[in-house]
Amino acid sequence: MWKVSFFEKLLKRFSMKKTMFSWYRHYKLLFFLGFLIVFGYGGFSWYQHLYQYQWSDESKKQFLETNFKETVFQESTFKDTVARLKKQTRIHEESPALKRDIFTGQTIK
Question: How far apart are CA 58 and CA 67, in angstroms?
């Protein structure tokens, strides 16, 4: 006895022409339903994450320990950097003294 596979049965019932006609007839409704589904899922997900979060005290503590570690303050490096910046500030505040006239090339007295 010859057995008809599922794929062959599907090809007998499936017609590209019927599919395109049904698409042209109902595409606005299908897009609207797709929009509603995506909008509904987004709203539900937003609500769940905003109002229904479920973190235990242990998971909150673990999150804080892994993400918010104190940094070691390196005082000597900080003081060296501040001193270098103050030195640069003093250098920039000094007005340069012109020793030569840039237009004539002669020494200014």
Answer: 14
Quote the distance between the C-alpha of residue 79 and its chain's center. 36
CA distance 87 to 93: 10
* H helical segments located in 3-103: 6-13, 16-51, 57-67, 75-93
| Helix or strand (DSSP H, E) at 100 | none
Instruction: Give strand pairing partners of 107.
Output: 100
Q: 7-60: per-residue pLDDT in tens?
A: 888 878 888 888 899 889 999 999 999 999 999 999 999 999 888 778 888 988
pTM above the 0.70 mark?
A: no
